Amino acid sequence: MAPPRPHNHAVSSSPTSVPFGGGGWPEVSEDLVLHMERLYPPVCYSPSAESLEAHLIYSGYARLTEDLREIFEEQKASAIQLDPEGEVLGEYSPAAHPAFAVAF
Prior knowledge:
Blueprint: H1 30-39, H2 52-78, E1 80-82, E2 88-91
Antiparallel strand pairs: 1-2
Helix pairs in contact: 1-2
C-alpha cells in the first residue's frame, strides 16, 4: 500500500487556484516573464544528466514560469486605459503612461 500523500502538497491546474490569493497577484511584468522563460525552458528528465531531485526543483521553476505567463496574459487582457471622464481609450500601456504604472 502506498504511503498517504503529505498534507503540504498543493496541486493546481491554473495559476488562479494557487493558495496565494489567486487573482490578487501583484502586477507581473513582461520583462520578468521573458527572463524566466529564458532561464527555465521546459526540459525532459534525463537520469544520466541530473538527479531526480534536481529535475523536480527545476521543473517547479519551469511551472512557475508557465503560471507567470498565464497571469501576465490575464492581467494584460484585463487592463484598460481610461480618459479623465471614464471613457475607455484602449489597452493599458505603462510605457505610454508611466504615471498610471503605479496604479496597477
